[in-house]
Amino acid sequence: MSGPPRRDTPRPAALGHLSVVDLSSGVAGQYCGKLLAGYGARVTLAEPAEGTPTRRMPPFAGDGDTGSLLFRHLNQGKAAVTLPGDGHARDERLSELVAGADVVVRDGTAVLPEPAPGAVECVVTDFPEDGPYAGWRTDEMVHQALSGYMNATGRSDREPLYGVGRRAYYACGTTAFVSVLAALRERRRSGRGQRVRASVFESMAAMGQNFVTQHSYNGTTESRARYTGLLATLRCADGHIVMFAIRDPVAVCRLFDAEHLADDPRFDRPGSFIRDWDELVKVFQDRALRMTTGEVVARAQELRISCERVWTPEELVASEQWRGRGVVRTLRHPRDGGGEHALGPVFRVSGSPYLADTPAPERAAPATGGEDR
User: Fold this and answer.
1) Residues 117-141, buried b or exposed e (16+ Cβ, 10 A)?
2) Residues 198, 203, 205, 210: what is their CA dihedral angle, to the nearest 10 degrees?
3) How far apart are CA 215 and CA 221, in angstroms?
4) Cα 355 from Cα 49, distance rounded (Å)
């Protein structure tokens, strides 16, 4: 009778039994493919003859097919094939790839052969294909504006703030990944594949939490009005801290050795404490300048006050927490052993290794058939 498995025995990857073809051309679809590759799926990026568009998207770190840092981030752990430029040869190669796939990720405009009956097809679009915005041309800023995020971000006396990056498209890529997993779970039960859809527009609406609910309930929208709670950003001797003091205003006074303020008639009621919060912050700011961020955060935690240091990117990379979680990893190129820094998994699957551990692929010669991995 065999005993329990040894703890040092490698566990199989959660998605190691899956073959995925990534036919998408943008951030959302290729990020979905990266997540699938990260948990073990064999993902092949199928590119047009001129290369996938993300190879030409900034920021860049050098020339060549993998000069785009965005492309390198989105396609770690994948293999790549280049589809023939000739229409008939391209269609044949596409049919071959799709026929052998458990999952196909594609853009909404792509015209493809039918996948196998048990395959999961994930269609990624900017907007729902049957909605009023279906024909719109868009980008990250438009999605942030339509979702209400920009209207609620920034100072009330200034223009709305655009959150940089491609957060809307990463949100959609995550939605697509979760949708694929749900469809695969259903396939285990019924044996049937299906088509799932993920749009950037709907993903941002879901991220908006109360924005949609608020408007549906009373017709109002979130604004950039000043937050009425006890929130402050303070400069300390060696940096900044952010403090959220909604639970116990008296404890905040104690944090900065200003207990006498708790008995001040200006602050003797919760409402007056909030109303005159700016005056309190001036006192706290003066005291904070004499303390380090570490001192403020440690003392705040003892007093059960929500408070944290504002970290720089360099400090985060060097932090004990990021090192312990493997947030930044080093990838080794299989050909020359060279290394490059990359972000690790955004979450972990219990018992499954994270396998997006090879650099993004260089462009392959046009494929004409046969195995690619």
Assistant:
1) eebbbbbbbbbeeeeeeeeeeeebe
2) 130
3) 6
4) 28
Q: What is the pLDDT of residue 340?
A: 82
CB atoms within 10 A of CB 29: 30
Q: Tokens 């801290």 belong to which residue?
A: 241
Q: How far apart (Å, rounded) are the C-alpha atoms in residues 283 and 305?
A: 17
Q: What is the mean pLDDT of residues 290-312?
A: 94
Q: Kindly state the tokens that stand for 98.
A: 């799709």
The number of folded domains in the chain is 2
Is 341 part of any domain? no
Tokens 């979450």 locate to: 347
Is the Cβ–Cβ distance between 52 and 71 less than 8 Å?
Answer: yes
Distance CA 144, CA 121 (A): 27
Question: pTM value?
Answer: 0.86
Two structure tokens written together for 133: 């915005």
Of the residues 316, 345, 368, the one at which a domain ends: 316
112 with 98: CB under 8 angstroms? yes
Residue that terminates a domain, selected from 316, 339, 365: 316
Residue 97 lies in a domain: yes
| 239 and 127 part of one domain | no
At 333, list the tokens: 């190129």
Q: How many CB atoms lie within 10 A of CB 164?
A: 9
Span of 104-108, 225-229, 232-236 with lowest mean pLDDT = 225-229
Judge whether 5 lies within some domain: no
What are 328-363's pLDDT values in tens digits?
A: 988 877 666 667 888 989 888 888 888 888 899 998
Confidence of residue 132 (pLDDT cuts 50, 70, 90): very high
- Residue 126 shares a structural domain with residue 249: no
pLDDT of residue 373 exceeding 60, the answer is: no
- Pair (186, 267) in one structural domain: no
In what helix (H) or strand (E) does residue 91 lie, and over which residues does it extend? helix 87-99
pLDDT band at 269 (very low <50, low <70, confident <90, very high): low
Residues 167 and 42 reside in one and the same domain: yes
**Residue span of the structural domain in which 46 resides:** 19-220
Structure tokens given for 63: 């020339």
Classify residue 371: in a domain, yes or no.
Answer: no
CA nearest to 179, candidates 121, 112, 128, 126: 121
Q: Could you identify the residue written with the tokens 């568009």? A: 53
| Residue carrying structure tokens 């979905």 | 32
